[in-house]
Amino acid sequence: MSEQPTKMWSGRFREPLDAAFEQWQRSFPFDVRLLAQEVAASKAHARMIAAAGILTDAELEKMIDGLDQVGDITPEFAPIEPGFVSPRLLGAELGTSPRSIRRWLSRQPEFCEDHVKHTRIVLAKDDPLLLRMKNHFAIQANLNLDGDAAYEEFSAATEADLAASMAHAEDIHHFVELQLTRVIGPLALKLHTGRSRNEQIATDMRLFVREAIDVTVKGLRRWALALVELAEQAGDAAMPSYTHMQRAEPVLVAHWLLAYVAMIERDVTRLTDARRRMNLCPLGSGAVAGATLALDRTIAARELGFDGPTQNSMDATSDRDFLLEFTQALATLGVHISRFAEEITLYSTAEFGFLDLPEAFSTGSSAMPQKKNPDFTELMRGKSARLAGAATTLAVLMKGLPLAYNKDLQEGQEPVFDAADTVRGILGILPAFTRSLKFNFERMKTAAATGYLNAMAAATYLSNKGVPFRKAHEIVGNAVRLGLESGRELDALPLAELQELSPAFGEDFHAAIALEATLDCHDVVGGTARARVHAALTEARQRLSSDVSAQL
Ligand code: ARG
């Protein structure tokens, strides 16, 4: 640390910072979770300045190695998960460099994002890739990945340095610079050539959101598949549909479930669309006006998997549309999750009795012994409020900001992290919860078959007989009144009585208002006729298992 001033900007200042203000303005406590992104972006920047002649090949090599080591640090915030492999320790063990291990792994076709966490490599004991790696590098079969090779024991001096960096780093950019200095010495101070934290945070957040979108889309796909499975199991079971929360017409249970699949598919397109728009690299934008070095910005863009560099440096350093779009898409998703949660909560009540809450996702009451409470659905409904809150925070944060970077933007990080975590938490549970729902099909059917839900089908029957629909509506209304007065459903009214209301009623009337017929008369694309729902279900399954969607 003696190599470097403790601040990134102390040169022009004579007075020290007010101690309370200094602590209060730090973003490190929350932006520390951007360590992986900061390291990746710094490596890309290093390659870009090396190409511009600022670093020799040997210096670049040393810097990349150093940054990898900083990325391998497991500060308290990143839990050590079983399966973590430290490429450095592994390299030492095998007499090869950590980079050759990383490089080998990244070239393997099976290597995917599940193998990377907080910049570290994760390999489960039964991962086939582990076996191949062992063979390739001739690793001893008994190498214990959870122990020795998982994380480094630091010397007391390093521990102290790390603790000091964590206590003082202003933000993740500062932390990485401090730690890189510890690892590779004064060469680290060249890394900041031609860059600004303004473009760094813009890049890190893009990388974070891009990954969060991919995780969310995967989770959504799992939930949609769970709904499709449930719909397939429901077969031709019927339930009432509601408008104004009053029983309307019978629908297939599968049709109701597929309504949520439609919402989810829209959510997926919103997220992937936002991802496409945001996938440009701000590196090379400098503080506001563009880098002061002739950098080839495509190098960094390519290295980080972006489609290209951003268009305008003022926009790139201050644009947070991608955070706004991401949180707005999650807020909309939250609305869908909350509507589902609300319906499940309602349908599980004794009053509806359409389903039994799965015990594994419910809790009891400390006061009332008979209770089984729908905590999961209630909490989902509640958490959707946080998602709406994040989108609102971002919109209000942005609306009055003059170009370009303003420190206010630092406040945009936490709501994004919170929204991403909230959705990740929900989607980690929701597919299993959905699969475990057990419907009371008898009760749903009874509800669908009582309360004159076939009145619309009855009116349609009359209009098919040539009665104008307005008239048919009125005749069936009269029939319903007759039924209400005498405690009978429409199908219990004998033909003779019906014919007093209209001669258009014929022998085939009762068949036309049976449950199956009332379903099947909605024979349009998107309707609840049984054949249409079967087709919709097959199509939904195909869409969800198609390669395109699997790649999302
Ligand atoms: N922590 C800062 C943020 O989140 C990083 C950028 C700081 N830039 C600056 N000029 N102070 O926005």
Please provide a written account of the structure.
- With 552 residues, the protein is mainly alpha-helical.
- The chain has 24 helices and seven strands.
- The chain has helices at residues 19-24, 28-31, 35-51, 57-72, 87-94, 98-107, 128-137, 156-168, 172-184, 197-234, 253-278, 297-303, 313-318, 321-347, 375-399, 413-435, 441-449, 455-464, 469-486, 495-501, 509-512, 515-520, 530-545, 547-551; strands at 84-85, 116-117, 120-122, 238-243, 246-252, 355-356, 438-439.
- Strands 1-3-2 form a three-stranded antiparallel sheet.
- α3 packs across α10, α14 (321-347) packs parallel to α16 (413-435) and α18 (455-464) packs across α19 (469-486).
- The longest helix has 38 residues, at 197-234.
- It is elongated and about 100 Å long.
- The model has no long low-confidence stretch (mean pLDDT 91).
- Arginine binds next to α10.
- Arginine (ARG) is lined by residues 27, 31, 171, 197-198, 201, 405, 407, 409-410, 413.
Strand content: under 5%
Q: Summarize the biggest pleated sheet.
A: 3 strands, antiparallel
> What ligands does this structure carry?
arginine
Q: What is the C-alpha radius of gyration, as a whole number of Å?
A: 31 Å
Distance between the termini: 43 Å
Label the structural class.
Answer: mainly alpha
Task: Output the number of helix runs.
Answer: 24
Shape: elongated
Give the rounded overall mean pLDDT: 91
Detail the poorly predicted runs.
none
- Give the strand order, joined by hyphens, for the main sheet: 1-3-2
Give the tally of β-strands: 7
- Percent helix, as a range, is 55-70%
